[in-house]
Design a protein that fits this description.
It contains 14 helices and 12 strands. The chain is α/β, with parallel strands linked by helices. It starts with a helix and ends in a 14-residue tail after the last strand. The structure holds iron/sulfur cluster (SF4). Iron/sulfur cluster binds next to loops. The site of iron/sulfur cluster has 11 residues, from loops.
């Protein structure tokens, strides 16, 4: 059994296993089962131990344990047009320079706020199978200068599968770097700390093509000693580690929590990269979305307590038409936005402004 298989075999996958550690009643277990039938549970014991109390609102608990609001059918399954951007099964090409690969639908934890809830742990229809077809696509598109290996969690691929991806893409001369999207440093750092073959593999291919790890810390409580050591191990082999956070109601929608997280990331050697507006995904929006106006106020307030490194992130939303930066309200009225990445050439770097309702959490499909 590989280190990965061993670690995954220890994960909690049934609500019954949560009864004792979370002191759940029969009714609560039954309710969790109903939700888990639709959106699976997977929690590494390490991550479960980060829950500090029986308090229902413990941020770590809310990130890994289903809430009744998750059964809401309001929202969308594909909020940013992933289906339309698919060029080869498992590969999306939305932004000119980037190809995104859904390498797996498996994760070491199924985050309750995941925008790919439609597939993680359940539906494998959108997953990449034929590396050769994807390589041929990238090779014939010289404008693509980077590939993002995502999922699911790209580090939940066995080392051999990962090697195949790295071997294939590192051989394409016009790629500048390969990114690996993973929550493993956050939820299962032991995958990095115990699997020396994984580090050797990354180090070897990092010499051929720059590998950047893009991870996903959402709360300061996730910045444990183990997580910091996993980050240090990745930095030690020459892979920069960057972080994407999602702004989440009840988790980090507090300026003090957000500044503590971003400053903590920089102290761990992780560069804060994006703060994402939570998407209107089915099973997610009612539980976690923060209105845009409130989000902007939180970010402005939090930045007062952040060092220069910590405040390098951009507050953005992944809209159907592109990655849009939420800049602020210079006139105190309309919110100013700017396309950071555009699906259509005509939108590249374009500014626009819009008056927002106080409770508005997303933009319409048609942007003015
Ligand atoms: S690890 Fe990433 S892909 Fe997997 S459930 Fe969490 S957010 Fe979604």
């Amino acid at each position: 059994m590989s280190v990965l298989q061993q670690l995954l075999s220890e994960c909690i996958r049934s609500p019954e296993q949560l009864r004792e550690p979370l002191h759940l009643s029969d009714g609560e277990v039954a309710h969790l089962k109903t939700i888990a039938d639709q959106y699976p549970i997977c929690i590494p014991p390490y991550y479960l131990r980060l829950i500090e109390s029986d308090w229902q609102h413990d941020p770590i608990r809310r990130l890994c344990i289903p809430d009744p609001l998750e059964s809401s059918t309001d929202g969308h399954k594909d909020t940013s047009g992933e289906g339309d951007n698919t060029v080869v099964v498992g590969m999306q090409h939305k932004y000119r320079q980037t190809a995104l690969v859904l390498t797996t639908n498996q994760c070491s934890m199924y985050c309750r706020h995941c925008f790919r809830k439609r597939m993680v742990g359940s539906n494998a229809d959108e997953i990449a199978h034929h590396i050769g077809e994807m390589v041929a696509y990238v090779a014939s598109h010289p404008e693509i200068d980077n590939v993002l290996l995502s999922g699911g969690d790209a580090l939940i691929n066995e080392n051999e599968r990962l090697r195949q991806y790295l071997e294939a893409f590192s051989g394409i001369a016009h790629l500048d770097y390969i990114r690996i999207g993973t929550r493993v440093p956050v939820v299962l750092p032991q995958r990095i700390l115990r699997d020396h073959a994984l580090l050797e593999l990354l180090e070897r291919y990092n010499r051929r093509k720059q590998i950047i790890i893009v991870t996903h810390f959402n709360h300061p409580h996730e910045l444990t000693q183990e997580a910091r050591c996993a980050v240090q191990a990745l930095l030690g082999i020459g892979c920069p580690v960057r972080n994407q956070t999602v702004l989440l109601k009840g988790i980090n929608d507090d300026p003090r929590v957000l500044s503590e997280l971003m400053n903590g990331l920089t102290s761990a050697g992780v560069l804060p990269y994006y703060l994402f507006q939570c998407r209107p995904a089915m099973g997610v929006k009612h539980q976690f979305q923060v209105p845009l106006l409130k989000g902007q106020r939180i970010v402005d307030e939090a930045k007062k307590d952040m060092n220069g490194q910590a405040k390098q992130f951009r507050y953005v939303m992944s809209h159907m038409t592109g990655k849009i930066e939420i800049l602020g309200r210079p006139d105190g009225e309309e919110m100013l936005f700017k396309y950071h990445q555009a699906k259509y050439e005509r939108d590249a770097s374009r500014f626009f402004s819009m008056k927002l309702a106080e409770d508005q959490c997303w933009l319409p499909e048609k942007i003015p």
